[in-house]
Specification:
The protein folds into two domains: 2-64, DnaJ domain (Helix Hairpins, Orthogonal Bundle), CATH 1.10.287; 106-254, no CATH class. Helix content is 45%, strand content 11%. It contains seven helices and eight strands. The strands form two sheets. It has a five-stranded antiparallel sheet with strand order 4-3-2-1-5, with no helix packed on it. Strands 7-6-8 form a three-stranded mixed sheet. 31% of the residues are buried. The structure holds zinc ion. The site of zinc ion has 9 residues, from helix 4. Zinc ion is lined by residues 154, 156-157, 159, 172-173, 175-176, 200.
């Protein structure tokens, strides 16, 4: 199960899928990719080894025609694994790590109740740790604190926001992006983050009800069920499950094909 998780696969799998998943992950984590940054090389080597092991395990399992583990999808980790660096491809709009926004996002300005949406063209931060400004198409820049992502639904926490539009974007919310970064650095925060996700799912259910949007409501309820199921998980399992959910959502959103 750990090998499947590492390669982002779900049962059933075949040889072709295992190889394709392994190639995709190794291409991003291979130490040569990070050769310019020595601090990352060691982490990349560890992860590449883990990916190689995972591929070998799964191929051996398929070859031997063994039964897959059933009844549990719990993933055990002996120690937290480093996760691949996700450098955005050059043609993608970079994500502002302070606001969780990127060019093209639709937002609402304070007091957040209007139907009018602004489109983000970028962000600027005055000095390290200073005010972050969100640049808006055809409008004056606005402080990050006075801008909120609009018309979206988060695949991790189920959080969502109006106004009611035909196509709400499916993307990780800024809070989940911040939590992903925290979780990568501080696994011991997994429990606090789980509780925060549950709170965002609750809020998402209420928001979806006020928008009369069944699809957003279904997603928020599904995410609440998911995060509640993690309640009895031990710290390592919880960390792995959260990291897996965040990473899948982030990768889907940040890949150009999404
Ligand atoms: Zn979220």
């Amino acid at each position: 199960m750990r090998a499947l998780w590492l390669l982002g696969l779900a049962l059933p799998v075949d040889v072709r899928e295992v190889n394709a998943a392994w190639r995709g992950r190794v291409a991003r984590t291979h130490p040569d990719v990070h050769a310019s940054e020595p601090s990352k090389v060691a982490a990349a080597e560890t992860l590449t080894r883990a990916l190689n092991d995972a591929k070998d395990t799964l191929l051996a399992w398929i070859e031997a025609d063994l039964e897959w583990p059933t009844g549990t999808t719990t993933v055990r980790f002996d120690e937290p694994d480093p996760w691949p660096e996700r450098e955005p491809a050059p043609h993608e709009a970079p994500i502002c790590l302070r606001s969780g926004l990127r060019a093209g996002d639709r937002v609402r300005r304070w007091p957040y109740d209007g139907l009018e949406l602004s489109v983000v063209t970028g962000t600027e931060t005055d000095t390290p740790g200073g005010t972050t400004w969100v640049l808006l198409a055809g409008e004056q820049a606005e402080r990050m604190e006075r801008v909120r992502l609009a018309a979206f639904s988060c695949p991790v926490c189920g959080g969502c926001s109006g106004p009611d539009v035909d196509e709400a974007s499916l993307r990780p919310c800024p809070e989940c992006l911040v939590d992903l970064r925290r979780l990568e650095r501080r696994p011991e925060e997994a429990d606090r983050i789980r509780r925060a996700i549950e709170a965002r799912a609750e809020a998402g259910i209420a928001t979806a009800q006020s928008l009369l949007d069944g699809r957003l409501g279904d997603r928020a309820r599904e995410r609440r069920r998911w995060v509640r199921r993690l309640l009895p998980a031990g710290p390592d399992d919880l960390h792995a499950a959260l990291l897996g959910a965040f990473s899948r959502a982030f990768e889907r959103w940040s890949s150009p094909a999404a």
